[in-house]
Structure formats: structure tokens, C-alpha cells
Amino acid sequence: MPRPLIDRRLQAELTGLYGAAEGHYHGLPHIEAMLRQADEYRDALSDPEAARAAIWFHDAIYDTRAADNEARSAALARERLAHRADPDRLARIAAMIEATATHLVPDFEDPGAALDAALFLDMDLAILGASPAEFDRYEAAVRREFGWVSDTAWRKGRAAVLQGFLERPCIFHSGQFRKRLEAPARSNISRSLDVLRNPD
Question: Which of 167, 170, 168, 163 shows the shortest CA–CA distance to 189?
């Protein structure tokens, strides 16, 4: 029987990493929320276990002062999964993790891999389409993660990130998420941008 990608020992190691981090949003509750979504969309995933592995690793390295968190998280996944996945599967998992830097689906030749990446990225951004109250808690939590950034710099930087999502033809890649969350996500982002640009 093949060794699972994420066994209890590796899960415990990753849980410890998330517990030790200072992520007010990018912590274990975020991972658990994505894992629940992976269960919900399991039948739509071509490789559910690989998607779950990408979920577990994608924020394993999270330092708000660094610009290479996604690459370092992918490198950790390659290291820890080296003897659990074949090279192609491992490359697919790492590419999904690295894609969280841009939230653009990697250029996979395999349609199943592309759909899995689309769903994975949509799960990561599902909070954008949450209820206004939940979205506001998310925004406040992310602001706390960047507590070292001045208010002026934060408003400018966060507005640029959110505006970038708003300018995309679609925020969500998969039809499942687009149908359910596209409209509320655009509403939440627009409201947040108004606050960021008009703080008084």
C-alpha cells in the first residue's frame, strides 16, 4: 500500500509550524477551512490527495516581511514529500503552492491538474466571498499580520492588491466558486477599497 502524502507524523509537524507562526489569519483555522472545502469538492478533484497536500503546505512558511514565502513553502513540500510522491506529482503540488503568489492557474498540460489548481486557488480565496462580517474579520486579521507596516503604506499596498483582484475578468477560476462567490467577493472588495481610500 502506498505511503500517504500527509500522514499523522507530517500533519503533526505542519500543525506545529502553523501554531508557531504569528498568522492571525494565515494559520491552522485557514488550513482547516480549506480542507473542509477539499472534502466538499472531492468528486471534482482529479487528485484529491495532492490538492490536500498543497493545502497543508501552501502557508507553511509565512513571514510578512519576506517576498518568497510561496517558493519556500513549495521547497518544504518538495523536501518532505520527496519519498511519498513521484516527480510529476510532486512538481504538480509544488506548482500549485507557488501559484498562490499570483493566484493564476499554472500552465498545466493535464486538464485535471489545471482544474485541481483552479479549485485549490479558489478555496484559498473563498474568504473574499464570505459574509460581510466574516470578510471584515479577515481584513482586520490580515492587517494585524502586517502590524509593522504604517497605516499609510498599508492602505496603499492593500488597496493595490484588492484592486488587482477587482480588475480581473473573474476573481475565481472555477465555475463552482464563480457562481457562488464572485458577486459577494466583488461587493466585499469594493467596500474595503472605499474604506482604505477614505479612512476618515
Answer: 163
What confidence tier does 194 reach under pLDDT thresholds 50, 70, 90? very high
Cβ pair 90, 78 in contact under 8 A: yes
Decide if 128 contacts 103 (C-beta within 8 A). Answer: no
CA–CA distance, 42 with 48 (Å, rounded to integer)? 6
Radius of gyration of the chain (CA): 17
Distance CA 122, CA 140 (A): 21
**How far apart, in whole angstroms, are the C-alpha atoms of residue 74 and residue 86?**
15
> Each residue of 68-78: pLDDT tens digit?
999 999 999 99
At 41, list the grid cell. Answer: 469538492
pLDDT tens digits, 132-184? 999 999 999 999 999 999 999 999 999 999 999 999 999 999 999 999 999 99
